Amino acid sequence: MNTGSNEPGEVAVASDGSEVDGTTTDGARDERGLGSRAPGFIKARRVLHLSWQVGVFAVGLAVVAVGIVLLPLPGPGWVVIFGGMAIWATEFVWAQLVLRWTKRKVTEAAQKALDPKVRRRNITLTTIGLVVVAGLVGVYLSKFGVVMPWKIEE
């Protein structure tokens, strides 16, 4: 559930001193480290800490479930799902590692999108797509006109 330490500055390190989540484990990669963010008085009592973790898991699960429901609906589904993951990351190492990986991939994608070659390609493809859609709309309007496909008599 956590790193096995109740100290707030501890970092998860593999037993052989190797890397965790693909980066070095010298403690410099993240000031806060991995593990529980629960207040000290909660971490001091095992039963209270376990109930805290159950509560955090339940709240995170509810938020992730709402995000999954919002995926096909008009709404910020992915944002809500990552919000639930952030809630889980306050208590669970696995969620912290998933969020770090996600943040790294999003940063890489943003840097890639800022590349001038990629931007030119994306602008060109968007322009071609808009021209194709405008042509299809023009063909549809020339063939069927502006009449709606349903018949409503007044």
What does this structure look like?
This protein has 154 residues and is an all-alpha fold. It is built from five helices and no strands. It starts with 39 loop residues before the first helix and ends in a 10-residue tail after the last helix. The model is unreliable at 1-6 and 13-30 (pLDDT under 50).
- The dominant shape is elongated
Order of helices and strands: HHHHH
Number of strands: 0
Percent in helix: 55-70%
How confident is the prediction overall: mean pLDDT? 78
Radius of gyration: 25 Å
Low-confidence stretches: 1-6, 13-30
| Number of separate helices | 5
- By helix and strand content, what is the structural category? mainly alpha
Distance between the termini: 66 Å
Q: What percentage of the residues does DSSP assign to strands (E)?
A: under 5%
